[in-house]
Structure formats: structure tokens, C-alpha cells
Amino acid sequence: MAKTTASGLGLTQPTTQNINVLHVRAGAPKEKLLYSESDASDRVGGAVGQENQVNCALTVLALDLGTTTGWALRPRDQQIAHGFVSLRPQRFEGGGMRYLRFKRWLSELKGMATDIHAVYFEEVRRHAGVDAAHVYGGLLATLTSWCEHHNIPYQGVPVGTIKKHATGKGNAGKDEVIAAMRAKGHAIADDNEADALALLHWAIETQEA
């Protein structure tokens, strides 16, 4: 797949080849979206099927914020797209460039989806270290200011709430969340991507999204 750097920010332009079509559980809305990726570590899953649905759902974005940010999005055509994007600083970059790349990526995603009606993010209270806490705080500030600018409602959801909904256990491990998302038909390999999908399912199934 050819990659074209966007505005020198280390992002690639989305292409029509990067489409991820995945099922949700029976009875839940389904959607798809063109996939946007950065220069490193991004991926897109394989198609597992499509069904005709009424195009009346809101476009909802779920994020697991971090150096590797997992994302899952349900646009209005009723198919779910998901993946993960690397926000690791590149060589010779200043410390703030990861946040500029993240903001640009959000805007690209919004452009492909036409609009985003709600954003949910994983609310993390404990971090593995100081650096992880700083990165999370910077990404969260970037996300919430971007949402405010575009008048998009946003909500943080505790990690335990997401895990309990996905697996029945509030202290479930990464492998258990991955297994739960695979059981819903999602082809995933990254735990950040699985967390974002679990959050999206929580939003769809509990928030009338």
C-alpha cells in the first residue's frame, strides 16, 4: 500500500483500500469506515461480513489513549472499523509533535466519517509510570480541546466498567478482553485496539448511541 506523508506530520493519507468491515453482536448496529494509519504499527483487520441496516445510528468514536492508541469507530453506514495508531515520537521530533499528529489524525478520521457525534475514551486513573501518565494527560488534553472546538460531546469511562461489560469481570486481563472481542467476530491482535472495541460496544449497548 502506497503511503503519502500528510503535511509533514508523519501521517499517511487514507485510501479506499484501507476498509475494515466487522460485525457487532446480533441486534447491535454495524458500521464501516475508511482506515487511517500512521507510518508505524497501524493495522486494519479483515472483512468478516456485511448486512443491510437502517442508516440511522450516530457516529461514535472510542479511544484507548496512549503511545499506541487503540481506536474503534461506528459510522452511520452500520459497520465497525477499528485499528491502532502509533504516536511514538519520531527521530528529531520535538516533544509536542505527537500531539499535533494526534490532532491531525482525529481531523482526518472525522473527515472520512463525515461527522462524529460522540467520543468515548478510556478513563485511566493509574499508570505504569510517570512518562505514561504525562503522555496520557497530553493526549487527553488534545482530545478534549479538539472535541470542544468541533462541539462534539465526550465522556471518559472507567477501565473497570469497560472490562466488566466486555468480560463480566472488572479486573479482567488483556488476553481476556482480546478473547471477548474476537468472540464478537473482530479480527484483532493488539490489546489497545481490543480495549477501544470493548469501549465502543459498551457505548453502543448502554448509551443508546
Written description of the protein model:
β6 and β7 form a beta hairpin. Helices cover 34% and strands 20% of the residues. It has one domain: Nucleotidyltransferase, domain 5. α4 packs across α5. By secondary structure, it is α+β, with helices and mostly antiparallel strands.
SSE order and pairing:
Elements (H helix, E strand, L loop, with lengths): L4 E2 L4 E2 L6 E3 L10 E3 L8 E2 L15 E5 L3 E7 L6 E6 L10 H17 L4 E6 L6 H20 L4 E5 H9 L6 H10 L7 H16 L3
Parallel strand pairs: 6-9, 9-10
Antiparallel strand pairs: 1-2, 3-4, 5-8, 6-7, 7-8
Helix pairs in contact: 1-2, 3-5, 4-5
The order of strands across the largest sheet is: 5-8-7-6-9-10
Counting structural domains, the number is: 1
Give the total of beta strands.
Answer: 10
Radius of gyration: 16 Å
Q: Helix and strand string, N-terminal first?
A: EEEEEEEEHEHEHHH
Low-confidence stretches: 1-55
* Proportion of residues in β-strands: 15-25%
Per CATH, what is the topology?
Nucleotidyltransferase, domain 5
Give a quick summary of the entry.
The chain is α+β, with helices and mostly antiparallel strands.
